[in-house]
Amino acid sequence: MPPIRNKNKKDLAEQEGQILLAISDLQNGRIFRVAQAARIYSIPRATLRDRLNGTQQRSQVRANSHKLTQCEEESLVKWILDLDKQIESKFSRKYNYERAKCEDPKIIQEYFDRVREVILQYGILPEDIYNFDEPGFAMGLCANAKVITGSDRYARPKLLQPGNREWVTAIEAVNSIGWALLSYIIFKAKKYTRLGWFEDFPDDWKINISDNGWMDDR
């Protein structure tokens, strides 16, 4: 258990002043004995003797429990301040674990090596090489975003989310020379009905339906 310190900062400052006066009197010959100086200035004799022998005031001495040296601490502070100029806070985004594993350069290179071998083996032309993507997304879902609000507002602002959670699939295909197939959109529905907002789609887009909004054999 640490010792109980009864003296406040004011008392400690007054005692330090008394110690400095006692040291001055002893060094200038106005007082000849440590015990006499300690009694006159009402300070501990052992403390006065230690200060005369070169011991520094405790508040000016580095604590023994520090893990780093003074130089190491100053270097660490400088590094943190320099780092603060190079970084900024951003929103994170979810990323599929299986996709992250496929970002290994060795795995990617092996894949393209196999693709090149197949192209050479069967004489496939660049215009016959397509990349297909089938992204799906839920209608009516809101994402977190930074917005501008009054500085006196404490709670996070709310963004209303519609109740519609229907799934929609978009099919895109582009070949290696840059030519793309027409966009193909699949909505969840039992019966195809061309709604008014469909008119905002480009004329060459293809729209179809399925029971769940996904691509199926039909």
From TrEMBL:
<dbReference type="InterPro" id="IPR007889">
    <property type="entry name" value="HTH_Psq"/>
</dbReference>
<dbReference type="Pfam" id="PF05225">
    <property type="entry name" value="HTH_psq"/>
</dbReference>
<dbReference type="InterPro" id="IPR009057">
    <property type="entry name" value="Homeodomain-like_sf"/>
</dbReference>
<feature type="domain" description="HTH psq-type">
    <location>
        <begin position="16"/>
        <end position="59"/>
    </location>
</feature>
<protein>
    <recommendedName>
        <fullName>HTH psq-type domain-containing protein</fullName>
    </recommendedName>
</protein>
<dbReference type="GO" id="GO:0003677">
    <property type="term" value="F:DNA binding"/>
</dbReference>
